[in-house]
Input
Amino acid sequence: MTELRLIMFLAIVSGQVMEVARAGPAGGTPAASPMLPVAAIQSDFDLLRQALEEAHPGLYRYSTKVEMDRMFAAERAKLDHPMTRLQFREVVAETLAALRCGHTSMEGDADMDAAFKSSPTFPLSILIERHRVMVLLNDTASDSTIQPGMEILDINGHKAGDLLEHFYRVTSADGDIETGKHHDVVGRFPMYYWWLVEQPKVFLITARDSSGEIVVAKLPGVTDAERKSNHNPVNAKIMSGAGKVLGAMHVERKLSFIKDPEIAEIRLHYFLGNDYRQWMRDTFKTLHDKGTKALIIDLRGNGGGEDDYGALLVSELTDKPFRYFDHIIMNTFKPSFNEDLDERFDAGAVKRFSKETVVNPSGGYMLTSAMVDGLHEQQPAEQPFMGKVIILTDGGSFSCSGDVCAILHHLHRATFVGEETGGGYWGNNSGRMPTMTLPNSNQKFRFPFFGYWNAVDGDGDLRRHGTIPDVQLDLKTADLLRGVDAQHDMAVNLAQESLAAAPAR
Output
């Protein structure tokens, strides 16, 4: 495969390649980095806590105040000695991840990112199957000992399961959703190892093949440039198989027919684009004119987008009025730390929020429909699609994508196949999301000011989770080696079954 094809391949699997630079560390090894004084890092941490307690709308969404106070105290207690930026970064990242908000995360640092990219790092790309770390690609130039499809058991004496637990502690995700963490760690595994564990030039790796045989290999680390340029022949089979499976998943937006005109498929990578509304109208007009009976919507890796676009998709799939958002809260639009934000609340913003919010009896404010159209009762499309709907989801189905799935699940308008969505069933914290800079360490983090609550009821078990598929199927390396998309195949089977079960006219 060409270098571009390989980069696309990794982006498809992780859905987070652009996020690596944002979350990734950089700036030399911990030993060589200048030490930050205790007073400086404690001051930065106190500012971070102040900002979150003052403005974050979901601070107590999944935890009580007592639990969050205990967490803050435990993290601050770690700051009793001078630290490098990388070490302090871990404390900050753990603190942010403890909020259980997928939209609250570390931002990048150019110097640190450059250091990571130029360093030799873990030479394998991975896929996570439940709590197993599987080899996706061998990124060395020619080693054939460690092959795609093997399970990684140990890296330089560190058990793979222990590494995952460590990495999950700094990975932000909604609620208790593990698929979202899986999805992010897949793309960040070498970076996390470099940042959180050690920075060796050689890796002793213990793996197990499909027959149960244990394999041990000592592999050199690879730089970012080498990872992209190496073309190890051992990857040929999975490149061929995965190209068939994952190529279609990376299409931004597409309507196709699996069985024309009875079974159609819509692929949406994001809810974005100036022509989105027109494209959606044209797409569903085509389905109506053709008399399509079953529709597969592939939202795997769909990281979200415009709320109005999500509501528009739902309106094309129901013949009844519906609610999209139940309510949206905001703690403040006059933050005391305004000068530390890259997107400040100026006089115009304050004036608008003063007009388009109402006081929340529980504290803070509630946004009105004058500000967010999704708070209105939504109307169905003139000619909605009312046939069988099957939606493919995974841990990358996040933010607006998670909202769409939750509402369609609540309305009983779709069958879901794949993995639990990365976006929370009851909503998320997002909207306006400025970046804050901690002055002493220059660490940056992004956090939201709006707390969205989806218009769902019942399903109390989903308060800490995403939409749970009716048919749960994971993406597996064994399937990729065979060029099989088991999730998609299941969706097609369900669509065909719905045709067979439909009464004859």
Summary: The first strand starts at residue 105 and ends at 106. The chain is about 35% helix and 20% strand. The first helix runs from residue 3 to 14.
